[in-house]
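User: Round two. Same drill as before: sequence, then structure, for each protein.

Assistant: Same drill it is. First protein:
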Amino acid sequence: MLLGFVNIVDSQNLAQKIEIKSIEINGNKHTNSQIILRELSFKVGDTIYNKEFHQDQSRKQLLNLYLFNEVKVDLDSQVAKVNVIERWYIWPSPKLDYADRNLNQWLLTKDPKRLIYGIDLEIYNFRGRNETVKLNFRGGYTKLMSLSYVIPYFNKKLSWGLTFNAMTSSNKEVWYKTDSNKVQFFKDNDRDLIRRKSVEIGFVHRKKIFNYHRIYTGFRQINVKDTVVSVDVNDRYLFGKVTTQNEWYSGYLYTSDKRDFKGYPLQGSLLKMTTEIGLFNTAEFSGQFKFSYAKYFKLNKRFFNANSITLRLMEFYSVPYNKITALGYDRDYIRGYELYVIDGLNFGLGKSEFKYCFFNKTLPFLKGVNNYNQIPLTLYLTSFVDYGVVVTSKSRMSSNTYPNKFQYGFGSGLNVVAYYDYVMRIEYSFNKFLNNRFYLSFVTAI
């Protein structure tokens, strides 16, 4: 019986066996074919036995380049066919941003003086090689100029890449301390109080599809007016009560990215580990290690689950205020605490979310506009719980009551996803103290 079963399975596999003799790519008017071929799970000369897997995996990898609005991979014959619909790659666009840590914080005051406006010139898929060039100019609350250039591959094997960025900015207001778990601001006669400069170069090695190794080094400088580091404001804002802080740093980042869609993942996993060391003003050293892992599950056709954990360990000889940002900054926050910060060096953060997909269609969009006449749109109902703790010394707590205590938040919401990676989250959250309200965000939570 067992032998008969094995023969049946072998016959089924042989029936599905396809030898790839050539690959035909259509729709890539600008994109170099090598960039597309690099992401496929097969190559010319391969014999495949599960075409559905290779079609699905290759499509996801190509969509994760953020170069195409839609991708179709056809393996019904020995000639593999890849059809892509390219995005627009040059976007000179006006920008309107806010000075606060997130949109919800700014909406409390709606102060137009705290808006940041400007224009960006973003060139994606530069030279057809998936290179990215960005020029950013900002005015208003923050004066900023920056340049970044990403080259995903510069060698023949398409395994080594290069990143470069440089930035200079200034502000007339400084986040100078945390009081009652909220960031406080200092302003002095409408003059520039803080200037920042930075430059960084990195090398990325991607031998396989899912694993990335990045080595980087750079320089950051912060210069503040003497009033900022006075006893009356915060004499521990920078290292050693100085007005200029120079930081040389180097680090290593390992990433294993097996998510189906990077913009809004539903299946797969993401692992990141970062180690970084810094030298401040040629006298002070710092070190940090950060670990994060997220796992995504498809429970059935409409239900999904996502879980993540993030840990950070930092070590400073003496800690300046501008280096104790923990939870409440960037994407490290507990939902329900968007209006608060929890400062410290070491923290742990966990998140769990359930999603129900109740709408998934491709709709007419910009009629007559090439490559944008349709839009894939998906809607999800979500429920979630986030939790975490920040560990810090009692001398830094002052009137801040959230560090060194377990915090959690929970709620539900609506997620809107377009083109697989444009996300809007509308959520109603509660924190540990049952403070509750609506929050709006434009990135994935996990």
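Second protein:
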Amino acid sequence: MVIAFYKNRMFSRMFSSVTALALAFPLLACAASAAIKTPIPAPLLDQPLAHSSGKQTAVFAGGCFWGTQAVFERVKGVLKTTAGYAGGSAATATYDQVITETTGHAESVQVVYDPSRITYGTLLRLFFSVAHDPTELNRQGPDVGTSYRSAIFYENDDQKRLATAYIAQLDQLKVFPKPIVTQVTPLKGFYPAESYHQDFALKNPNNPYILVCDRPKIEALKQQFPGLFVDYKGHR
């Protein structure tokens, strides 16, 4: 019942905070699995910081896009984040279709960043450290299905090479208690989600789902990577 209730998270706004938090109590495990206690090792293979400012794009899927966006929009060097869908076709890139688990889409976040301020490898480190649990297969906490899978959608061969190498590094070091199940797959298209999903955690900080599952990710980012954390207020 709890999983089914939160599977369609928009319904949580129809309940009082007290009632919803009572329902959410069994989901505290999602907060515990959001991040390990200390920062994981930095990638051995990475690109150097660019000599001039510009824009590059990365796309990550790590469960509910609310929490993934909440992490990356608070990272120094990130210029813009967009919640959306990747892995399926444009024709099926709507929330009502994606939650049927038949579209091939994963809830994803497009991260536009300044490569003179932050590297792709650093974004990978944050993705594996605090944004989600990369050892959970086709789920994150209470959310179950392939649309909540862990995936890196690479835009070029460099991103593929860096992501694959980092996963191998972390697995070899046994950083996590279980093998990483993150898919590394080419980005065929990214489709922005509906407007009500954008910056959802920022706009709804007291939503029970956000308090239980996503606020701990933001706190982990702040504690583990204070030099990268920015207290994002909804504008750059």
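Residues 132 and 202 are 18 Å apart (CA to CA).

User: Perfect.
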